[in-house]
Every structure is written in structure tokens, then in C-alpha cells.
Design a protein that fits this description.
InterPro entries: EVE_domain, PUA-like_sf, UPF0310. This protein has 143 residues and is α+β, with helices and mostly antiparallel strands. The protein is built from three helices and eight strands. The chain has a single domain (4-135), classed as ph1033 like fold, CATH 3.10.590.10. The protein is 17% helix and 25% strand. Strands 1, 2, 3, 4, 5, 6, 7 and 8 form an eight-stranded mixed sheet that branches.
Length: 143
């Protein structure tokens, strides 16, 4: 059974991952990535455009499918060795979250909807994945 996830990272970091065909979460921790299985759908939400900024970008920035079996370490140099997963990123249009808040299961009626993103990754319903994909102009083939 395929699962659907929202991962959280700045737009600049997401764009780097899209270009390289990978994802990272929670500053490179492996444990959250172990929850994700091959063929799971991943959607990135970017609260900011630039890492550490308070710019309130609040946009879905990437959508794709995990293609590997497990997280792997990647040496980025300078002693930083984060864990990654390989992802087949789909061509998509970035979509702001605010127009979707009253429709998404995880945020409907929630005043503090952003609180759920504090862990860096969030399991979501197939309904939510489809709503976000449509906003990003992507057709998901989901069972």
C-alpha cells in the first residue's frame, strides 16, 4: 500500500533536491526517512523561500515518488553527512497552501495548522495528496 507524505524544507533546499533527484528531511536525519517506502508519494511544503528566513513563503514546492529501498548517507563535505532518499520528481507548478486550508483533511478547521509541520514530515490522506497534486497541476495515479 502506497502512503502519502508532506516533507518540510525551505524552497531553496527543495529545489536543490529536485535538481539532484533526492530528498532530505530534519537536517539529514535517517529515522524519518525510514518511515517512507518505495513508491510512496512525497510532497514538499516550504514555509520559507530561504533556509532560516522568516519570509512566510508557505507553498507546496515539489511532488514525486520515492524510488529506492532505504535511506543512504551522502557526504556533502565539511563533516556534514545527511541521509537521503531518491525521488522521481514530477513536473509541477508551485502552489500556495492558503487556498487549500479549508479543503485539506489535516488542516480543515485547524487554526494552528502549521504546528503539524514541526517534525519535518507528516503522513497525509490520499484525498489531501490528490488535492495538493491538482493545485500543483499534477495528475497522480493513485489506487
Amino acid at each position: 500500500m502506497m502512503n502519502h507524505w508532506i516533507a518540510v524544507a525551505s524552497a531553496e533546499h527543495v529545489r536543490r533536491g529536485r535538481a539532484g533527484g533526492f530528498m532530505q528531511v530534519c537536517h539529514g536525519k535517517a529515522a524519518p526517512l525510514r518511515r517512507i517506502k518505495p513508491d510512496d508519494r512525497v510532497i514538499y511544503y516550504s514555509p520559507s523561500e530561504v533556509f532560516g528566513s522568516k519570509d512566510r513563503f508557505q507553498t507546496f514546492t515539489a511532488i514525486g515518488m520515492v524510488t529506492d529501498e532505504k535511506p543512504y548517507a551522502f557526504d556533502m563535505g565539511g563533516g556534514f553527512v545527511p541521509y537521503r532518499r531518491n525521488v522521481l520528481w514530477l513536473p509541477a507548478t508551485e502552489a500556495p497552501i492558503h487556498p487549500l486550508l479549508d479543503v485539506l483533511d489535516f488542516s480543515m478547521g485547524e487554526r494552528n495548522w502549521g504546528y503539524q509541520f514541526r517534525f519535518g514530515i507528516l503522513a497525509i490522506s490520499q484525498h489531501d495528496a490528490n488535492v495538493i497534486a491538482e493545485a500543483m497541476e499534477v495528475k497522480l495515479t493513485v489506487e
